[in-house]
Amino acid sequence: MVDLEDPELTVEDRHHLATVLRLRDGDEMTISDGLGRWQPCRFGATIEPCGDPVLVPTPTLEVGVGFALIKGDRPELVVQKLTEMGVDRIVPLTAERSVVRWDAEKATRQFRRLERVAREASMQSRRVRLPVVESVAPFGSVADAPGVALAESGGGPVDLARPMLLVGPEGGWAAGELSDRPRVGLGPTVLRAETAAMVAGALLTALRDGGG
Amino acid sequence: MVDLEDPELTVEDRHHLATVLRLRDGDEMTISDGLGRWQPCRFGATIEPCGDPVLVPTPTLEVGVGFALIKGDRPELVVQKLTEMGVDRIVPLTAERSVVRWDAEKATRQFRRLERVAREASMQSRRVRLPVVESVAPFGSVADAPGVALAESGGGPVDLARPMLLVGPEGGWAAGELSDRPRVGLGPTVLRAETAAMVAGALLTALRDGGG
């Protein structure tokens, strides 16, 4: 997640590479701008490119998951897993029955935290195009866009015609939210909110990417 | 997870129902034997059946996930999520490149812990047939059974012809483990071991159960 023309590592990244991954001067590594380009380099006091930059094409279709806010560190878990799976857009939501609410200060802090989680998970999974993590959005601002479906028991199968799936709060969607919006089922069992978000991500990316 | 003929709650379950879920005397609840039967009851000092027992048919096909041991509390996370998704058989494995090893005492303690996690996740997800959680098994004792495939980059798509997927350690499968065994890919990104196990469970149960 650096400028490929003039690669510089943050202090944290350098520490991670040198101390955790134990890279030594001259070891090969790859850097990425997080926008789809990566380049082989050699580790050292400066980062020296040692090959041509490679542009990974944009995905044929962007898939996304929105999830009603959940407690504790489960939003981080969701963002980490969705990023590893290759989800392109991740949106924390407030829904009518959301128990968890973030005030403006917490929303800003969490947004930065989730962005950092997505960045680290992208590096971990060698993903060269960062997902877009949005700041917390009201349900209504997301639900009526084209291609959106609500995860709800009894809905139809996951389908790339609706590549943005929204997962409700523990108490479920309110009737006004469900309304006559398209619904997609995630299976016969009752999933915790964070599990539903992960299943949505796994099924959407599998449909788009096939095996591999 | 009780005897339907003579339902008795454990102290922990009673506490959970009364204090966390705030059930009062006479409230309806359901009990299950964990073997596929459930029954409506009324909560109180004794648990009184108030309807006929219902037998949920066995799944048309049992799906399973084996995963090489991973550090910290991630085995619990995997068992919890696979149970919610409806996976029938969950097997912790030791593989050649497993960094994590459990001695006999730890294996026994962890087995009990994972069984408890599966029981709680079954109740949470209203699943009336408990998954079989096996104690830690060597790779070789599981890998050559019919219907088993290894999760490996570049493998074919997940397929119910091989309903038991094994996920390797962080260092990957050894050449001798891969050998000429069937391989299944879980997508183009690099997944952490626990994420791979969850994706395997999500794809297998979705193939078997469809939407819903």
Summarize the structure in short.
Two copies of one chain form a homodimer. Chain A has 212 residues and is an alpha/beta fold.
Written description of the protein model:
2 copies of one chain form a homodimer. The first copy, chain A, has helices spanning about 10-20, 75-85, 105-125, 140-145, 175-180, 195-210, and strands at about 30, 35-40, 50, 55, 65-70, 90-95, 130-135, 135-140, 150-155, 165, 185. Chain A has 2 domains: about 10-55, Ribosomal Protein L25, Chain P; about 65-210, SPOUT methyltransferase, trefoil knot domain (Alpha/beta knot). Chain A is built from 6 helices and 11 strands. The longest helix of chain A is centred in the middle third of the chain and has 21 residues, at about 105-125. In chain A, helix 2 (about 75-85) packs parallel to helix 3 and helix 2 (about 75-85) packs parallel to helix 6. In chain A, the strands form 2 sheets. In chain A, strands 5, 6, 7, 8, 9, 10 and 11 form a 7-stranded parallel β-sheet that branches. In chain A, strands 1, 2, 3 and 4 form a 4-stranded antiparallel β-sheet that branches. The two termini of chain A are about 25 Å apart. With about 210 residues, the first copy, chain A, is of the alpha/beta class. At the A-B interface, helix 2, strand 9 and helix 6 of A face helix 2, strand 9 and helix 6 of B.
